[in-house]
C-alpha cells in the first residue's frame, strides 16, 4: 500500500481547496498514484460540533500511505506551527509536504502573498489615485493574513498615506463578519475611496454593504480582493484581485512529495510561487486595462495548433475572420454541452493571438485586435452562462438534498435509513462509494467500524466483522484504497461521530461535498437519537417488569416506572411528529391534523382555514450567510409562526425545505387574513437581515391563504392546492405579501 497511495489532508473542499487539490490529483493521476483525501475540519476549532470532524486526522494510519500532503493554510488557521506539527506527528515518519504555509520544520510549497499585495497597492495608489483607505483584514495571527496586512501597511507608509486604526476591521476571511465590520466603519465615516480586502469572499460582502449604503463601486469607492476565485470575474462589478497559482501550488507540492518518496533529494525545502495582479472594474480601471489584463493571462497548457493557424489566416483575410468567428461561436456552444472549461478555451485564443500578433505588421495587428474585440462578448456570454449553469446544478442538488433529508428523517431504523442513503448516493451519480458506521466503544478504546454500504459487488456489508476505523475499509476491500482518488468525510453531527463516507467523485462532479456529507450525517444523527430513545424506553419496560415481579406490593414504585415509560413513549410520539431542525410540527403531523379537522368540518359545516408560507429568496440567504445561519433563520421563522397559531387546535408545521403551513380550524376568510397579517408583522419585528433579497432588506414571507367550508367530496389536497395557487400568485406579484385564494362556490349539502 505505501508505494501506491498518498494521503491528502484538508479541512474543506470549497473553491480554494478544490483548485489546489485539482493540481495535486492531476500529478498523482499522471504518475499512476492513488490518493486518499481526508477532509475534516480546522484543527482545534472552537466551533461546537466540529471537534469530532477534525479527529479524522488522528485516525490516519501512516502505514497506508507513502507520504502526506497537507493544505495547511486553512487546516491550521487556529493553531501555531508547533501545534500543527504536534497534531500531525504520527505522519512525520514518512515524507510530508506542507502547502500554503511556511512551516520551517518540513518541506513546503508557498505562495508569495506579499508581492501580489504590493502590486495591488501600487495600482490603487499610483494608478487609480486612491488615498482614503479601509483595510478589511483576515484573522489576527494567521500567517497569510499577517503577511498581506503587513504588505498593505508598508505600501501605504511608503506613499505617505495614513491608515487610522478605526478604518481597520477583521473579517476572519468570512463574508458575514466582513459585512458587519464594514457596516460599523460606515457608521463612523463615509469619507473613504478604497477598501482593500484580504480575500475575495470578504470583498463581495463589502461591495454589497457599500451599494446598500448608496456608495457606487468603483465610482465612489474602489474594492479589491485576493485569491481570484471563480466568482471574481462574474461579480458586478468584476473584482480586481490577486491571483494565487492554486493549481500550480498543488502540482508542485505533489511533484515534490513524489520526488521525496522516490528517494530524490528535494530541489528546495522552501519553494515560493509568484502571484499575479488581476485588474478588473471594481477598482475603477478603464475597460481597456481590464481587457488587456484578460489577454495577458497565463493559458497553462499550449493552445491547439489549429487555433494559431486559423488566427493567422484571419488576420490576413476578412472572409476568414468572419468564418473563424462563426466556427468559434459554434465550438463554445458545443462545449457547454460537454461541460468544457470555457475560461481555458478563451485563454487558448488569447495566448495564440499573442504569438500571431508578434509576427504581424501594424495593420495586421489592428485587424487581429478588431476580430478579438468582436469575440469578447461571445466569450463573456458563454462563460457567464456556464457559471450560471454551475449554480443551477448546485441549487438543484441543495433542493434534492433537503427533500432527501426530510425523507430520511422519517425512517424508523438503521437499515431503512441506510437504504435511503444508498438511493440518495446513487441518484447523485456516484458509482464508487463506501459508507461505514462506528461501533459503540468504551472511552479510550480503539474505534471500530462496520461497512454498511458499498458499490463493490463482492463487498460484505452489515454482517461483516468490525474492523479498525483507521483502516477505512475492511481487509477484503483494501485494494480499493490503492486505485483512484477517494474522498473521506467524517459523518458527524452535534459533536458526535457516526461513521465515514468514502467516494470517488466522477469527472465534472461539481456538487457541494459539504452538503452531501452533511445530509448523510443528519440522517444518521436522527436515527441515532431515535434509537437512543427506543433503547431508553425498552430499558424502562424491563424495569417495570422486574419491579412488578419483585415488588408487587410496591405500587408507588411501579406507578412511577410506568409514568416514566409513558413519558418516554410520548416523547417518541412527539419526536415522530416534530421537525428536528425547527421544533415545530412536521409534515406528517400536519397531514394527520388535516385529516381529523377535515372530517370534523364536514360534519359541523364551519369554515376551515389554511396558510401556506415560503421564505423569500432563501437559497440566496444560504449562499450569502451560510447553511448554519440559514438553519437559525428557519428556526426563528418557525417560532414566529408558532406564536401566530394561538388556539389549542391551530397547527404550525414545517411543510418542507423553507415552506411552512398553518392549519386554522373554524376560521373564516377575515380570520385567516388577520393571522396572515400577524405573521407578516412578526417577521417585520424580527428584522432578520437579508441583503440579497429583492423583496426587502430583511427576511420576508410570501403567503397563500384560503378558507372554505368543506363538502362531502372535499379532499385535503383541494385545500392545499388552493393555498399553493395563492402562494404562487403572491410570489409572482413581487413576494412579501399574502394572497387569499378565491372563494369556491358553496358546496352542496
From TrEMBL:
Top-level lineage group = Bacteria
Q: Which reaction is recorded as catalysed by this protein?
A: 2 GTP = 3',3'-c-di-GMP + 2 diphosphate
Q: Matching Pfam families, A to Z? A: GGDEF, Peripla_BP_3
Q: Which NCBIfam families match?
A: GGDEF (TIGR00254)
Enzyme class comes to transferase
Stretches assigned to coiled coil = 523-578
Q: Which residues form the GGDEF domain?
A: 606-743
Please tell me the species this chain comes from.
Answer: Pelomonas cellulosilytica
Stated EC number for the protein is 2.7.7.65
The record's annotation in Gene3D superfamilies points to: 3.30.70.270, 3.40.50.2300
Q: What is this protein called?
A: diguanylate cyclase
Which keywords, in A-to-Z order, does the entry hold? Answer: Coiled coil, DNA-binding, Nucleotidyltransferase, Transcription, Transcription regulation, Transferase
Q: Which PROSITE patterns match?
A: GGDEF (PS50887)
> What GO molecular functions are on record for this protein?
diguanylate cyclase activity
